[in-house]
Amino acid sequence: MANLYYTQPLVGPISTDTHLPLASAGFIVTLTQIGYVLGLLFIVPLSDLVENRRLVLAALAVVICALVAAYLAHTALFFLVSALLIGLGSVATQILVPYAAHLATEKQRGQVVGNVMSGLLLGIMLARPVASMITDFFGWRVVFALSAIITTILAVLLACILPRRSPIPTMNYGTLLRSLWKLFKTKSVLRRRSLYQACLFGAFSLFWTVVPLWLTHHFHLSQQGIALFAFAGVAGAIAAPIAGRLADRGWTKPLTGMAIGIATLAFVITHIFEDNPALSLIMFVIAAITLDMAVSGNLVLGQRAVYALGSDIRGRVNGIFMAVFFIGGAIGSAIGGWAYAYGSWWFTSILGMAIPLAALLYYFTERTAAS
Predict the structure, then answer these.
(1) Considering the chain, what is the average pLDDT of its residues?
(2) Is the pTM of this model over 0.85?
(3) Helix/strand/coil (H, E, C) string of the chain?
């Protein structure tokens, strides 16, 4: 999963080396997320049809090839295509998450999903500081070379130890894909949880696409300094298992409102102590932690809710849920790069606040705790 996020703190050096304009730099992150969305819509649903281990290994093979291509890229187009394919293959993780939910009992499903997601979120959040640290010493290309090696080792290990799961097909692939829209249209829980998370992840992607640029230009931090800043965001992963346990106790609805509200406030506090660089940087650290907690906590709440819709559709609802919120992330990162180029942090943060605020307004229309 970390492969999706290595580029976030490296937008500056990658765009410079590949001659990509600053206003378009956000597409480095956006195309990875678009590739992920495509994989969620066209590959993850296959987990309801074909043997899951084989599907995971095929997806990882795509990731490995794309990582090698990113390492070799010297033009913007070549790198962006590689980024798209990295996202496409990284959906292997979203085949494994519902499988874990499938093995869990109903009473423990929130806890199990929370535990799995906390590991997945640690990968996401550690990706930024690790990528920055490696880039500071060896250059950004080494990040992709090392990841290709690690992912290859992972694929070999999974081939040896991953248990087989062969679902019983009830429809062909074409019918399966056509059922995605029907599920989104008819399952109000799926639709609502997807849109909540799309807004939060859009704000998250906007923040982490732009903040490394702001830390460099305003606070004059090096890649190592950006890495240390990104380590703060790792603390947000603790919200995942906690949210899962509280969801098992029926706290889903109030925790959802809290998560959306916290995400909105995270952008507000970045404007406190603006005249004092040291205190301002501390406020950005607090914003990073709280935003990451809001996004990771709400993700587990959403996944627990949609997985309860039925084991026979779990692969599809997971694909829809993740695809919708990653579309939000892709939009957030694209808007972030554009907003920063034309209005610096002020304009970017206003847009960042507006996205979860829209989710909060939608949340107030919720009438049933089950949603």
Answers:
(1) 87
(2) no
(3) CHHHCCCHHHHHHHHHHCCCCHHHCCHHHHHHHHHHHHHHHHCHHHHHCCCHHHHHHHHHHHHHHHHHHHHHCCCHHHHHHHHHHHHHHCCHHHHHHHHHHHHCCCCCHHHHHHHHHHHHHHHHHHHHHHHHHHHHHHCHHHHHHHHHHHHHHHHHHHHHHCCCCCCCCCCCHHHHHHHHHHHHHHCHHHHHHHHHHHHHHHHHHHHHHHHHHHHHHCCCCCHHHHHHHHHHHHHHHHHHHHHHHHHHCCCHHHHHHHHHHHHHHHHHHHHCCCCCHHHHHHHHHHHHHHHHHHHHHHHHHHHHHHHCCCHHHHHHHHHHHHHHHHHHHHHHHHHHHHHHHHHHHHHHHHHHHHHHHHHHHHHCCCCCCCC
